Amino acid sequence: MRVIGVAAKGREVFDKPLEHGTDPRVLAYEAGWVVLRPVEADLGEDGDLRLVLRVRHRRKGDGHPRTRRPGRDRGLKTGGEAPVVRQRFAAYAVVESERGVLATEYSDLTAVSGRWGMPGGGIDEGEEPVAAVVREVHEETGQAVEVGPLVLVQSSHWVGRSPHGGVEDFHAVRLVYRATCAAPTDPVVHDQGGTTAAARWVARDSWQDLTWTANWRQALRRLLR
User: Fold this and answer.
1) 194, 109 Cβ separation under 8 angstroms
2) For a tag on the chain, would you pick the N or C end, based on fewer CB atoms within 10 A?
């Protein structure tokens, strides 16, 4: 993925590759800029993902973006196995309809089984992020959605067991979109045996009653207020 900063009037001010484990906000800060908001994500002419961010000049007093140290699965024992370094780009959606907000429950293949998040998943090679959202939402919930703007970019870095059992040094970059569902139905998980155990609509005024992952609870507090 390449991260592109645009300032006033769409002027491009930097274009840099996103190195493993680096948060896009940190990349921008170290280039002399502060991220204001995401603009879009797409495939460049070379087929690589591009993340475009609206930025402004870094000023005196602008603190370094808050980042966490790389996490580690609780109780992880590697037995001397060297972690596989993996960077994964994924697209998700905060989907709303007359029935509420669409939520998905993580399966036992994940380190957060029983907790809830938003539908979405990995972007296939050569796939546009918006197309990935539409595909993943249908696979995980059976809903047809119209994708809106890119509203949030999350970056997480940790060492742990993958759903397939191997040890990974894993850097996840999540593109989060708004989306709407004009004809909501009872959710159905089509991708059986994957990382999604269940899906449901949650009333907007009671979304906090679910046990969300920390990242998703933080994101929803911002996006549903």
Assistant:
1) yes
2) C
Interval 80-104 mean pLDDT = 94
Instruction: Give the span between the Cα atoms of 46 and 44, in whole angstroms.
Output: 5
Radius of gyration of the chain (CA): 18
Mean predicted confidence (pLDDT) in 112-131: 96
Interval 47-58: pLDDT, tens: 999 999 999 999
Tokens representing 135 are 């595909």
Residue 218 has pLDDT above 90, yes or no: yes
SS3 track for the chain: CEEEEECHHHCEEEEEECCCCCCHHHHHHHCCEEEEEEEEEEECCCCCEEEEEEEEECCCCCCCCCCCCCEECCCCCCCCCCCEEEEEEEEEEEEEECCEEEEEEECCCCCCCCCEECCEEECCCCCCHHHHHHHHHHHHHCCCCEEEEEEEEEEEEEEEECCCCCEEEEEEEEEEEEEECCCCCCCCCCCCCCCEEEEEEECHHHHHHCCECHHHHHHHHHHCC
Going by C-alpha positions, the residue among 87, 171, 110, 174 that lies closest to residue 136 is 174
Q: What's the whole-model pTM score?
A: 0.92
